[in-house]
Amino acid sequence: MKIKRHGISIGMERIDDDFFLYIKAVGQLTHEDYEYITPLLEYALEGVKKPKVQMLIDLRDFEGWGLHAIWDEFKLTLKHGNEFCRIAVLGDEGWQQLATKVGGWFVSGEVRYFEKQHEAMDWLSQAPEEVEKKGAEKELAFSTHS
Prior knowledge:
This protein has five helices and five strands, in the order E-E-H-E-H-E-H-E-H-H. It has helices at 31-45, 67-80, 94-104, 117-125, 128-144; strands at residues 7-15, 18-29, 53-65, 84-90, 110-114.
């Protein structure tokens, strides 16, 4: 009998005024998984309005969603999408990068895809004003060299 692992692990940490959420998805998520996941995530995010949450999502062992689970993920993202400052998505597949771009349309914070965990963590650990400054520098460099 072959065992198929699927589900998520959730970790939470507060550093000074910053709230970090770590999620690792494994296997193919089902609607039944979301029946367990949703209350856990909602409990973790309950009452956290300020400061906004920074999150690392590890998709390296993730295989996707079942059909009903896609709808569950969409509803969860719409409900909590305004609670995030930055979301770093860690993956190793092209479809994960595309899913990150699409998912970014439904959250108020910045969402970026990474293939290396240390780069994702470096980005998340930067102060928000550092990220804005670097983004402005890139825009300026692009506009002056276009």
